[in-house]
Please model this.
Amino acid sequence: MLSCKEEMTILAIETSCDDTGVALLEALEEGVFSVLSNVVASQIELHAQYGGVFPAMAKREHQKNLVPVFEQALRESKLLAPRLSTLNPEQVKILSSILEREPELFAQCIPFIEKYDKPNVDAIAIVNGPGLEPCLWVGVNFARALSYIWGIPLIPVNHIESHILVNFLNPAPSTLAPNMMPALSLVVSGGHTQLILMKDIGSYEIIGETRDDAAGECFDKCAKLLDLGYPGGPIISKLAADYALSPTPSLGRSPTGEATLKLPRPMMNTNDYDFSFSGLKTAVLYKWREMNKKDLPALLRKALQAGMAHEVQDAIIDVLLKKTFAAAQAHQVKTIILGGGVSANAELRRQFSENANEKGLAIAIPPAHLSTDNALMSAVNGWFHRNKKASWETLEADANLRVGN
Ligand code: KG4
Ligand code: ZN
Model:
């Protein structure tokens, strides 16, 4: 039985990578949720110039964005109440020690706290891992500061678990969960590719994962090699869809008839549930180097890029699909649960749904905007772990946090 009340308002903060997110979620009777707000400030434009996320730069952006995003989320939730007050020197001293390594955030925090009343929330769900260490600390220290000053308890949440639990936002989890277990979750993001066996919410076993690059990282790196921009997943997905509508048959074949765009499917037939994507990226590097000759006409170059994008996406999906459904069968699961940025991919969603239907398995896939990083998923996670409180004095970020074991 749950010892604390189920009806509550949860504030969630997410800064594990390059998205600054704040969400407010109201849990009503029987775990029925009402979303009050879910604000995400993306840093994509900044990182796109460099073709990837630089942790130090992302940390600076989180410091800059956190208070405005927080303010917007509270305003949208109608929880922002102006009330002028002055912090005493002792409070300022403690806040400055909590935010010692985030001076820009500290500078914005003081006027914010002095301008607004404590919002009516019951807990702060804070992502403390896994992710980019400097980024995680910005959110963790901000949450610690708010918890200290407002006396609101902290619930540390795992980012990977949040990608899974966002699927329980709707319909009501208490009615859904018992009938869908055991389940197998595939979490595919920019930093992780894991197959997680679930006996229940909160009971996890990682039964397979990538040995090198994550699936999202592979999308991103291949897009960069093909001069397509950042982040690679959505760009490749769009190009691949266009290509599938009007493929150029001659492109995929050499004059002797062999498939020139064919890429490997690393580890697809190994007798385990692990993945490897770095070889795929290397294959793209060599193939593109071979094809992208200086005198290549622009139109042909574009067609080749699209063909390669299509093949990269196919290769990644083929491997993910084969391993996931093999594991699902071996472990006799009832449900497949997808999560993480790559699960926003339309073709992946289509193929997984089709396969699950054929095999009589239930499938849960978040709406695309909740597949990628956001704080709402952390709020849902926080609700499930509402009894697991942490103190602002001791909470730490852990870049390598894992679910289960
Ligand atoms: O979960 P997420 O937002 O952040 C991490 O926790 O890493 O995932 C980001 C990853 C990026 O690698 C991005 O390219 C990929 O998700 N991604 C996609 C799509 N949208 C985002 N990959 C394939 N197809 C998409 N439509
Ligand atoms: Zn993520």
